[in-house]
Write a sequence for this structure.
């Protein structure tokens, strides 16, 4: 079976849209120039970059000058967080224990720089407690960070309610959002949510790998994180591929041409998958929030009595790519930190499977996956002493 024949790990990366590839080709060949002044090649590149910035900005209710291109979401997070730290110099920061590793590793770095960091817990659906957020705010609180859509279980954080809480504080609290799993999967107007900085990635929405963007609200001051000559952007100095930015902009155009329809399609697919799994496989549980409270592309389940790593490898033999736990936390076969934080035990964590879908996923793909997963589950459970003991009790 061809590797990745059925690709259901779109939270990590997604198939490049053919239209995005086509949009990139001229910038790899005849339009290979960097932006510049006084010469036609540089001015042409300026015009292209301005057009691409406008497309990205429109998708989130921003102004073109508030968009900064980066080599990906992780660097965008680092530029925002470390840039704010350099500008603020000290203070209190709030993040949650279920946030994306980018935010948690930066929180640890902030502590080493002398910032105090509070870590919020989460409920059983991985949603942060708003009352605890209110209680943690202090006169010296300067930054709140969150992951708009949880990268493991797909739960959507209440961004509007968070904004209201931060806005009601006596002091200015900057609001940084990692939107890697949310962008193109839900409406994300930076003004509606009062977001000051926000990271997005192209390759999560069928754009090219190696390019992303950082939204920075006008008037927000970031200290310089990367130093060097400006080619494309003043925050990530040095070279950035105009071709990749062209592909990014085309991918955004495709998704946001009818975002509601795109969301409906993904939710129909994920509901179809979840219902199929429930019908075919007993003793499974959905992890994270149900229904409209979760991102439309994410289905995370725990399958009792077997380990997700074994399922992942066996599905891969059939050309089906899925994830167990979090792709950013499962190395070393450790229990997933998000699942443990929301009250799952080690067995449920190790038995977790994450399916993330895309617009290229078909119901035929899902039918085949459900069939193979049911077969694999039955085979692996037949070797499980715990499962066999349960079956004997039921007889």
């Amino acid at each position: 079976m061809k590797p990745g024949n059925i690709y259901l790990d779109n939270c990590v990366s997604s198939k490049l849209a053919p239209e995005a590839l086509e949009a990139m080709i001229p910038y790899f060949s005849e339009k290979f120039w960097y932006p510049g002044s006084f010469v036609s090649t540089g001015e042409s590149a300026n015009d292209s970059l301005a057009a691409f910035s406008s497309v990205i900005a429109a998708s989130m209710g921003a102004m073109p000058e508030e968009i900064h291109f980066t080599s990906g979401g992780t660097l965008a997070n680092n530029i925002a967080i470390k840039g704010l730290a350099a500008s603020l110099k000290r203070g209190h920061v709030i993040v949650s224990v279920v946030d994306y590793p980018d935010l948690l590793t930066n929180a640890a770095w902030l502590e080493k720089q002398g910032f105090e960091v509070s870590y919020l817990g989460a409920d059983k659906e991985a949603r942060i407690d708003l009352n605890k957020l209110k209680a943690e705010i202090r006169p010296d609180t300067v930054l709140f960070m969150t992951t708009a859509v949880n990268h493991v279980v797909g739960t959507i954080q209440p961004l509007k309610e968070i904004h209201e809480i931060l806005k009601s504080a006596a002091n200015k609290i900057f609001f940084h959002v990692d939107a890697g799993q949310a962008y193109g999967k839900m409406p994300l107007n930076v003004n509606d949510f009062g977001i000051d900085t926000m990271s997005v990635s192209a390759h999560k929405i069928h754009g090219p790998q190696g390019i992303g963007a950082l939204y920075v609200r006008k008037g927000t001051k970031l200290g310089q994180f990367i130093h060097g000559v400006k080619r494309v952007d003043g925050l990530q100095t040095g070279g950035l591929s105009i071709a990749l930015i062209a592909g990014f902009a085309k991918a955004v155009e495709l998704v946001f041409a009818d975002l509601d329809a795109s969301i409906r399609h993904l939710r129909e697919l994920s509901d179809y998958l979840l219902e199929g799994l429930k019908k075919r496989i007993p003793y499974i549980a959905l992890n994270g929030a149900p229904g409209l409270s979760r991102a439309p592309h994410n289905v995370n389940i725990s399958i009792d009595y077997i380990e997700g790593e074994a399922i992942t490898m066996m599905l891969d033999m059939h050309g089906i790519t899925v994830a167990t736990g979090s792709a950013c936390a499962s190395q070393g076969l450790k229990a997933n930190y998000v699942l443990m934080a929301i009250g799952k035990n080690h067995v449920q964590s190790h038995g977790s499977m994450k399916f993330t879908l895309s617009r290229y996923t078909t119901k035929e793909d899902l039918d085949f996956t459900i069939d193979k997963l049911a077969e694999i589950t039955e085979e692996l459970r037949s070797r499980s002493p715990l499962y066999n003991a349960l079956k004997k009790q039921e007889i």
Notes: The radius of gyration is 22 Å. The chain has 13 helices and twelve strands. The longest strand covers residues 141-147.
